[in-house]
Specification:
Elements lengths: L2 H9 L4 E5 L14 E5 L12 E4 L19 E5 L1 H9 L22 E2 L8 E5 L6 H17 L5
Antiparallel strand pairs: 1-2, 2-3, 3-4, 4-6, 5-6
Length: 154
């Protein structure tokens, strides 16, 4: 799956807004080029927490373990929640800290716990392809469904 395919697939899910950060939108420069997916069926809610993101570069001093500054590498991040995270990873999100070092976060086309947000129930895939493409689509649809069930903030 390419970045454009992920944006098209996720953006076509009912009620989803895909926002690619840029200078015109007031996003911080470090986020420019990254895409954030929100459930916002009316297109008018304050965007607080995305259910998925597409990140194209490292965030120095914070999120560098995936080495996203390599040419052509991007990372799809999905908020799957505690239950699905445990089903996928075999342990609850709260137990990730003790397992963090077991993972190579630079591997492509492999479902991994998110290097920074695993404890919050996030997973990721670098450059989803043959091994993870369909799973990525399923996880995105599930994350969108979870976002639908969350109460809207006023």
């Amino acid at each position: 799956m390419s970045e454009d395919e992920i944006i098209a697939f996720t953006g076509a899910l009912p009620g989803v807004v895909a926002y690619t950060a840029d200078a015109g939108g007031g996003a911080p420069e470090i986020a420019w080029g990254d895409t954030f997916f929100f459930h916002d069926p009316d297109g008018d809610s304050p965007r607080r927490m995305p259910f998925a993101t597409l990140v194209t570069k490292d965030y120095p001093g914070f999120d560098t373990e995936s080495d996203l500054d390599r040419p052509g590498v991007f990372r799809l991040n999905v908020a799957v929640g505690r239950t699905v995270f445990e089903q996928l990873m075999g342990y609850p999100p709260a137990a990730h800290q003790g397992r963090h070092a077991r993972f190579d976060y630079t591997v492509t086309d492999l479902l991994l716990p998110h290097p920074c947000y695993a404890a919050q129930g996030w997973v990721c895939v670098l450059n989803p392809a043959r091994n993870t493409g369909e799973q990525a689509r399923s996880l995105l649809a599930g994350a969108r469904a979870r976002a639908v069930r969350r109460p809207r903030r006023a």
